[in-house]
Amino acid sequence: VPALPQTMELIDEAKRLNLRTLWEVDDLIFDREVLINSKTLAQLRPDVLGPLIDGAELYRQAMLACDEGIASTSGLAEAMRAAGVPVVSVVENALDHQTLKATKRHLTQHRVADDWVRIVYGSGTNTHDVDFAEAADAILHIMNEFPRVKLRLIGLLELPKGFEQFTSRIERMEFCKYEEYLVYLAECDISIAPLENYIFNDAKSNIKFLEASIMKVPSVCSPRSAYTSVI
Question: What does the pLDDT look like over 12-57, one tens digit per residue?
Fold first, then answer.
């Protein structure tokens, strides 16, 4: 939460009562400079990006007003400590019961019965063009080298130049419900999780790896903090 008046009143009252206060976050939203210089976030609409940047100082103020911090990754924890939080614990994102139940239902549909090798990228929102660029040259090389490879895209993504020659080998799935996403994922052979080499992404969690692994799909991931630690 940001340092709105009501929030700060609650933190002050907790301190008056000698209650331990903890501030939890799963994205690096409290550093204005990091947000301003992120190529990934620059793809957001101005009406979304503006308030995010303007709110960074409020998030930082609320964070520093608390006794301790909770982060979802080690990279994020390091950034919180560097900002001045004395004690930070890491509680990683994990797989919830709903996901595990969906997995049991759909693992029987694992893989498509043909001789194509499918590489899948779950982009979700339209802020991942910069991230995909990390893998674009390698994917193009593979599709040139191996004619039985298809690229499956789930969600919104603007492909860079070069992919127009492979239109017939690109499968596009619209932004969909989470359970549908898991089914589309399970039908593929290799999942990729590219991330721009930037401090903001060292604070990202390894959820793409977790989702692919629970559907028994191997992953190729950028060497950002959360991925290197789990792999």
Answer: 999 999 999 999 999 899 999 988 888 878 877 888 888 889 899 9
Specify the 3-state DSSP secondary structure of 184.
Answer: helix
Give the containing element (helix H, strand E) for 141: helix 129-145
The alpha-helical segments, DSSP class H, found in 5-118 are: 5-16, 32-36, 46-65, 74-83, 97-106
Q: What CA–CA distance (Å, rounded) separates 68 from 81?
A: 10
Which position has the token pair 């950034």? 79
Supply the pTM of this predicted model: 0.82
Which is more confidently placed, 4 or 110? 4
Q: Which residues contact 132 (CB under 8 A, 6 or more apart)?
A: 121, 123, 157, 159, 160, 194
Q: Which residues pair with 124 in a beta bridge?
A: 155
In the sheet that 117-124 helps form, which strands lie side by side, from edge to edge? 170-173, 149-155, 117-124, 190-193, 219-221
Report the candidate in 64, 62, 58 with the shortest Cα–Cα distance to residue 81.
64
Contacts of 162 (CB under 8 A, 6+ apart): 136, 140
